[in-house]
Design a protein that fits this description.
- Keywords: Membrane, Transmembrane, Transmembrane helix.
- By secondary structure, the protein is an all-alpha fold.
- It has one domain.
- It is 94% helix and 0% strand.
- The mean pLDDT is 79.
Length: 36
């Protein structure tokens, strides 16, 4: 179970990184649209 918990933690960490990257990408995307 310890190994499963580690894998789950890594998966959550990766999901958070992807979510943050997507949020930043959308932020700049709308920012550029507003400037134009």
């Amino acid at each position: 179970m310890f190994i499963g918990d580690e894998e789950g933690g890594e998966k959550v960490k990766i999901d958070k990184v992807i979510l943050n990257s997507s949020f930043i990408f959308l932020f700049f995307y709308f920012f550029i649209i507003i400037l134009q």
